Hints:
Layout: E1 2-9, E2 12-19, H1 21-36, H2 51-81, E3 91-93, H3 98-105, E4 111-118, E5 132-137, H4 142-156, E6 159-161, E7 173-182, E8 185-198, E9 220-226, E10 240-253, H5 260-265, H6 271-305, H7 312-333, H8 344-371, H9 378-390, H10 396-405, H11 407-429, E11 431-436, H12 439-442
Parallel strand pairs: 5-11
Antiparallel strand pairs: 1-2, 2-4, 3-4, 6-10, 7-8, 7-10, 9-10
Helix pairs in contact: 1-2, 4-6, 7-8, 8-11, 9-10, 9-11, 10-11
Amino acid sequence: MQVQETVSEGLRREYRVVVPAAELETKLDAKLDQLKGQVRINGFRPGKVPAAHLKKLYGRSAMAEAIDTTVNETNQKIVADNSFRMATEPKVTLPTEEAVVAEVIDGKRDLDYTVAFEILPKIEIADVRGVQLEKQVAAVADGEIDEALDRLTAQQKPYLPKGEGAKAAEGDRVQVSFVGTIDGKPFEGGTADDIAVDIGSNTFIPGFEPQLVGIGEGETRTLNVTFPENYGNTELAGKAAAFEVTAKAVQAPGTLVVDDEFAKQLGMESLAKLREAIKERIKREHDGASRSKIKRALLDALDEKHKFELPPTLVEDEFNNVWNTVTNDLKQQGRTFEQEDTTEEKARDEYRKLAERRVRLGLVLAEIGDKQKIQVSDEEVSRAVVDRARQFPGQEQQVWDYYRKNPQALATLRAPIFEEKVVDYLLELATVTEKEVSKEELFKVDEDEA
């Protein structure tokens, strides 16, 4: 076998490989010998099928397997001999001319192919000890707890019938059934029965709720509205529609006493315990925002300290993922780059830089984690699967089976756990000072934050 390097440019390597026909023939004979004891052919005892007959029946398929095995083994040897760390899977280019392929398969011609590798760069990890980082923290104010309790109360608020002849007003709830049409024709998703509409909640299409003011129980009226341009269903976005609505009941909000009894209805011992639970939930939200900001600052510092050539395919794949997300979001919202105060060219440039940053940081974090022997245990991954399954009530077993049977899907859960553990390690090395800020400052999103 001959292996000759033909390209060595940056992170790209390419080799020409020539495998003599005689070598392939030897591998073919070995595969046929394996088949001898496995196949059952009428007229022959097990293991006694003549090699010539086996070759006649299975020669071409066995040779194809031999070629596939040879290519894989050769590629692995090239990687091992050169101590390559692969950025992507090798790209193999086999002969395509029908006559040439036939001669190789029939053992009459050497196998001559090329294989291209994209390798990872050698990364020199900068010293991150003593990096100055600011950790923003915000105490949970009583006002936040009160606001959260008010929202919870609003969700639990009872609605009582307004009585015979009563008309709906702002803040009331109307139980309705409706049929929606566009240009006189019903459309998918435009019909519903016994739907609760809280007038003034702005949860329905703009213009729908205000037109229910003054409606009475048993009354039917037609509401004319226009779907927003950025409506989620693009087939309905921007279109005018008419809804024939019948009010089944008109209800007014009742009073709700927020006391220990109310807390017990929610499974808490007392109102004080309910407030403690709300405070703890808000604190977790604050901690999450604080962690996100200091992690961003840490990644900024890492990005600044590390500059090296990036594998082009990894960058291109990451850019395509980001770009597809951006363009799909714009399409769903019915917006253009110009409406976002930019151009497609400028946006492409910005998101390509973002893709480069993500690839660079991903490689740096992986290198640090590898050198520090940071591992993600099976138990940690299992907990992540359980957490994921809980997001789909009633489908927990299906979610569990999906991840158990799909190693690639499981890797998508393992990767963020690994990243957070590396970040924890780096934060221990950094010099972190806490800064008390307001809730608004803590949750403020920087314009350049990605």
